[in-house]
Amino acid sequence: MKKFAVVLAACACVTLGMTAGAGLASAAGGAISGTVKYDGTAPAPRKLEVTKDKEVCALHPHFEEDLIVGSGGGIANAVVTAKGAKGDLKPGEVKFDQKGCDYTPHVLAFPAGSTVDIVNSDGILHNIHSYSTKNPAFNMAQPKFKKVIQRKVEQPEVIKITCDAHGWMHAWWVATDTAYFAVTDDKGNYSIAGVPPGNYEVEVWQEKLGTQDQKVEVKDGATATSNFSLKPKS
Amino acid sequence: MAGRPGLDPTEEGKSYSALFVLMVAVLLVTAVWSIWDDSISRRPWKEYQVQWDRLAYDKYMKDAADEQKRLDADPEYQKVSKELAQARIERDSGAIAARLAAMRGQLPDLKNVANDKDQLVRFTKSYLTERWYDYNHAIQERQDPGPYKREIDQLNAELARESIVSDKAKDNLQAVKDQIEALNSKVASRTDQMKKLTAKRDDLLDKADTWMIPVKFRNTVLFRYPKIPRIEQTAIDDFDRNAFDEAIARVDRCQSCHMGADKKGFENAPEPFRTHSNFDQIILKHPPDKLGCTPCHDGQGPAVSSVRVAHGDDPDWDSPMLRGAKMQSRCIKCHIDVGSLHDAGGKPIAANWVEGERIFEQTGCAGCHLVAGYEDIAKIGPNLKLAAAKLDPSWTVRWIADPKSFRRYSRMPDFAFSRAQATALAAFILDSSSKNSKQWLAAHPEVATLEADVKNPAFVEEGKGLFESAGCKGCHAIDPRQHATPVGVVAGFGPGRAFTAKDFAPNLGRIAEKTSAAWIYAWLKNPHDFSPHTAMPSLRLSDHEAEALTAFLMTHGKKREFAGVETALKNPGQIEKGEALVRKYGCFGCHEIEGMDKESRTGVELTTFGSKHLDELSFGNRTQIPETWDQWTFHKLQSPRLYATRDVEQVMPRSRFDSADIRNLVVFLAGLTQGTVQERYRMPGSEHQAQIVAGRRMVNYYNCVGCHIIENRGGYISRFYPGDQINFAPPVLNGEGFKVQPEWLFAFLQGPTPIRPWLKIRMPTFHFTNAEDDTIVNYFTALSDLNVPYMFIDTNLIAPAELAAGAKLMTKDYFNCFSCHQEGDKKPEGPPSGWAPDMALTHQRLNPDWVLKWIANPSALQPGTKMPSYYPGGPDDILGGNQDKQIRALMDYMFWFGAHPGETLPAQMATAPVKSEK
What we know:
The complex is a heterodimer of chains A (234) and B (918).
Chain A: H1 2-21, E1 30-38, E2 47-48, H2 54-57, E3 62-63, E4 79-83, E5 93-99, E6 102-104, E7 107-111, E8 115-120, E9 126-131, E10 139-142, E11 148-152, E12 157-162, E13 170-176, E14 181-183, E15 189-195, E16 198-206, E17 210-218, E18 223-225, E19 228-230
Parallel strand pairs in A: 1-18, 1-19, 5-8, 7-13
Antiparallel strand pairs in A: 1-15, 2-3, 4-14, 4-16, 5-6, 8-11, 9-10, 9-12, 12-13, 16-17
Chain B: H1 9-13, H2 17-41, H3 44-73, H4 75-91, H5 94-140, H6 146-197, H7 199-211, E1 212-217, E2 220-226, E3 234-241, E4 247-252, H8 279-282, H9 288-291, H10 294-297, H11 307-310, H12 351-362, H13 365-368, H14 387-390, H15 393-401, H16 403-406, H17 419-432, H18 434-443, H19 450-454, H20 457-469, E5 486-487, E6 502-503, H21 511-514, H22 517-525, H23 527-530, H24 543-554, H25 565-570, H26 572-585, H27 629-638, H28 659-670, E7 676-677, H29 687-701, E8 709-710, E9 713-714, H30 736-739, H31 742-750, H32 770-783, H33 800-810, H34 842-845, H35 848-856, H36 858-861, H37 883-899, H38 907-911
Antiparallel strand pairs in B: 1-2, 3-4, 3-7, 5-6, 8-9
């Protein structure tokens, strides 16, 4: 019975997670949208070697996800935030899955104060090791019998997550200090809706390429465009 | 008027009243001035106290106001104050008020009646006593007691009657009092509640009142005046003892101005009112009302006439107030283990002193200077009794003349020898060691294959790999610009900078210029055979490995022979000159030299150097250096022969210390003072403290910190293991005493066995004596503050169900321990960077208590570890879901399978139902 309840909770948070990730669809305000592109040659996908627990982990090939560039040059998994945009953070529950010894999503953005439901869909031992400094760092075993671990992230921070049992697994949690953020899709597109009118600095963060700022003016009912072009770090 | 004869009428007629008035005025002014001077101008502390009174008053009033604001927002306070007001209104109005007034009106009469009746009873009792005396007296005098007896009976009857009346009067009084109290009870209970809620505010207001004393009229403060200033002093009549073991009294009046030093909350106040820094550690543990201030701060305790004089900044006062880091020099007077003193945030309190002591120990100061407590430090330089077997003659001359041009970070100081002196010294060193060397060389013939193998590029390549991986780099650098383990600050390190930091072990960048392949090979194979006291350990290299490493090292540097060196060094005159120089400059302070084992140190004894008076320190002709102890010492350490004159020669060599290192050394030297502190003021020296001090010195001597982090220091080699590679670096040893079993550690230090077999880096063998080994084991145990360091577990007594539960918890379905941990000979899956130690070793290696804590929350014991914490609560289906029982079962099973290798759980155990309360 207890297990069933946990599964139910997990399902509930999946749906919640999706809406939270898409930003706030409030009626008033304007929107910011655009594309994050890579200013360089797209790296060839690098295959990762699965070295243990092959019966679960090697069911599909693994590729390095630290820089995924789509066919049009768009960068996936970059986080765009409207810095200083005021408003209720509306923290919620977001889902972070370990499936086939990969983290889904690779980059998880949410407003600070949200609770992350860490799901172990694999049924083998994983461990969640956070490299956080502003939030308490943790390193918890998540054995087979524990399908969901909940972890609240109070402070805004970019946190690296790894699994020490499976060296190739790594992901990022981005706890934002504003409710107005988005994660780019496969083509590098993003859209932040319902932003209160005003002048903002829009910041993009990418795990390998760092951050970049741009100024943008948001007007009621209009969509401001803010495109980024990130260069490889030398 | 004719005047009396003999008197001059003109004189008589003169008036002196003007002079008189003048003199009176002068006298008056003098009197006023003397009072002024005595009570004001020579009492600057009074002005400070008045300032303090205002400051403290303002602060406490503000805090009280803040507290009031907090109270106003507190729902409970609002509730209670409303109830109190309500209760007062109820009590003070209408029928209740009338009743109360009426009853209060009755009280005086009732009291009078009760008192009167009570007095009657007492009088009657007195008469009774009197009559009883008469009665007894009559019997003893053989008279008739009859009349007295009758009187007694009568009085008894009276007493009984009066008692009833008196009790009734008392009851009447009490009844009215009870009624009043009952009517008042609601107000009283609310008032009590209120008092509790406002205790903090009231306390703050009381404090404010102590400094600015209120003058009140009917609860209204009319005005306030500052507290009358008075000297605040602590007298300690026996804190320290002089050289004749006589008590020296101290009177400290520092708090007459430093009013806030012992009070929290004035952290941001201006001096002299600021709260003492590190309040919890310093003030709470060293209460100023018992210890005063000058035991740690120095200065002129009793003086209050001016800031300058009170702080002892007077040429006539011996101990000016200590400032900044120099204050750390006083901790050693009462604490044995200064290195372990930390502030509330875990930061070392005496970091500069500790660093100074380390530099003192590790740069060989104690070789030439006797200091009580540091007599037994081993010589830091290489053994020269076998010098001729090791050293290239040309190199020896060049080295002695200018060590820093060969190794810029060498610990060998610069004696500024001329080429001629260097030649003479080399001649003596090589000659005095030639006999021993011949014997040693005969006993260690060169390996036949060495000459060819050293030139083999494959060997060189393999040797390079060994040098990189075996652990050499914990102590030795090979790039001339790099350092491995530095002694002193590293700030000056780098190309083109002053070369101030020292390397703990020699840089090997030009080793082949100095010595031969045969010597390197023999040395690597067994350093102790060549030099019994060396800190260099054996890496248990095979013959092949030693050859490879020799081959690699021989590619670094080239022999540079200069013409005529052999003849010059064989010259008996030179040898004789060299011997005289060795004695004069005291080379045997750091090196073992044949025939000079019994020589005494050449430097001045420094045991009480910190107490030296200025007139004992010669400034020579250096008039530009300010005449203070600090300045003399700083410049002496910077340029040791600075104070030499034509007649006074100085021989101390120059160590090229960084000025930060010198400042630390100055702090350490300042702590070498005369006189001892009375036993009862000292921190009781526990056995643990002594063990920590001894162990720390040994850890420094053998440079364990080159590879390991111990007491949060060291681990220098770990920079070669960036990121994920850190798993291949030597382990961190913070908390090691709690972690491992002392017997295991002792045996491990005697002969290390691999715990993490995948590591290329090796724990070397140091050839510790049993006593040294004990010192290190005790050091770790003491650092973990353990009295019973290890609890034995009898693995035969573990309950089968417990073992079964433990075994189950380790399986893939649960914690899957062997996903990372090695299990006996079975290696885990995946790359070695993810591997963890062999669990089969646990039962003989680890402390069970540590294992329990480790499984529950590893990061608490070793921040950043890859070992994840136990899942809180654990699985529900094992041992009733009780986490503590599950962890215990894991530990028990771990100990069991290590102690019973190859055994499987007996069948009935494996199938035994695992107890579950579900």
